[in-house]
Amino acid sequence: MTGTKTGGSRSWWIGLIAGCAWSAGVPGLRAEAPPPASLEPILVVGERATASTLLGGDLRLLQADSLADLSGALPGFNVVTSDTRGYGDIISMRGSGNALFFSAPAVGMVVDDVPMGEVFSYPAGLLDLAQVRLLRGPQGAAFGRNGAAGMIEMITPGPSERFTGSLRMEAGSYDAWGAHLDSSGPLGDTGLSHTFQFYHQERDGYINDPTLGRAIDDRSVTGGLANLYWKPTADSELRLRVFAEKADDGAQRLSRLASPDPFVVQSNLPGGNKIDRMQFSLHWTKEASWGRLKSITAWQEWKLDPSVTDLDFMALGPVFDMSSTIYQDQRIWSQELRWESPEDAGPWSWRTGLFWMDQAVGGDATRVFPVENPWGSGNYLSMSERTLFDIDQSNLAAYGRVTYAVNADTELQAGARLEYVNSRIDRSKTDSFYRTSVVRDDLSAWYCSPEIGLSQSLNEQVKWFARSAIGIKPAGFSAFASTPATARYDEEIGWNNELGLEVAIPDEHLEFGLTGFCNWIDDYQLNRPDVWSTDYFTVNADRVITLGFEAQARWRPLETLTVQAAAGWVRAEFDDYFDPGLGLARDGNTVPYVPEFSGSLALRYDLPKGFYAQTSLRVNGPTYYDDANADAFRQDAYVVWDAEIGYANDRFSIALFGRNLTDERYYTFINPQIKAGAPGDPQVFGVRASLTF
Question: Domain of 378?
Fold first, then answer.
């Protein structure tokens, strides 16, 4: 790496932030100081099974700016990413994850009740959030969007009682700078209120390319979220939500594993990654003595336009160049009608609903790679393969979960999901020799996912719980399969079991949760490359067994000191799997993309007169990136250390921060097929300030 850069052409942002510090004395301006992490429950057992909750203060304590930053902070949760804003990410929970490009997510996501589609279109960055909840285990009985292994629920702040606004600015290494403006509150005497967020972030690239004479993985994103609320009556509310984002990024963050410096490549193709997102949703809520009725209607569009990647990372000339160019889009219509019990329902509480989603994914992918001349002249030719595809999926589901309080100490819980899924594919692939293969197929099936649980308070401080549930990822199609026969994959069915303990000692300001789990997963959906081409497809491993534990704690030993810790360990192994590509048994091997353990430790100390200091450590254990468990494609355990010092009063805050202070070298993704990896963020420093008015 050539070293970090600070200031540069964006150095004027440092001066602007300093100016904000001076303006803190202007009447009417008030800063939103980052508070210590709240001691709200971190482990919630009840209506929605076992959930870990991170509030806004927790996210700031962990310096979590992206979904990947929550790996380790939420035990058992992991994100494999190559820094392409979600495209090609693998999100796993307790050993179960999605395939690289095509397959239903194992961990579902909803943002403000709006369901996301496939993992490749999940928002990689985090908006200003009031709360992030990770619900472990199958969640098909509680949400319209299915989550076979878990669910991420993100909630943005609601409107304030009076008009408020804030401005945050940030600048740092690699000419990074950003701004975030938000407002909230009533809109005059109209009966309307609003929330609004607008943000822009950009930085220079981390990976330098001497061939092109510049960094190639620059990042830039601009987006906004607006909510308009109207209460026509005291017991009803309408909400119009609009979200838009535009990312104009450089190359995918990949470099050769054999390179002495993972932040240097010798590519003659700069690459790029452009993504547009748009969401519109209409929410209607009715409160009554019989419960709460919600309707959520949403339309979403996600466009990759395009993603260009150099697959050889070298300047080899036109014949030997390897590259990928992908245009892809996803459009979703969804409708959910949900009925929830009132707060004073007595011993019975419930959450039930109907859900419909229609998802259309289309793409145009071209890959170029060298092949030996088939006419035997001894030289090579440049081969191209172009794949045009449309994959449509319709989901119709009924779900429900009911909880019965047997007495003050014991609760029983039961639920189920009944879902009909229909999938269709229309795909053609043509190579340079005009050879064409076509796949046109469809499938449909009914799936039923039951669950049952029990929780019991042993005393005022200790509660234990147990839960057993079935999670199902439906069958589907892979558009990048090399032959029509490999395009189709079967459903994945997991039997998930957990047993845990929750301890809360209010007098000591201490909360602790420990959960053990054991899951049997049949027909595990697994991403694997075609050894004879640049294609990927999804296969089914007959049986995978995962077991492990998760622990999470929050403690405030002093009024000025907050300690937060999390740890997870998982053993995910193939119990029965025969590699169809190489014809080898993989029984006993570790499932790829799943770290053996992960964890985090964060501390914040509030000094007198508004000064504070905080630091956090995130650790990821050994991770294999192929089903053969080759050492060449194994990332060893690593630790990332972040820290921040700052000052905050009722009007203004300013902070200096550092991330990856030890400049740890590691990979967040490894591609065995092209022998390349995505190096994690290097050491960076910066300053941020905020004003609230």
Answer: 8-692
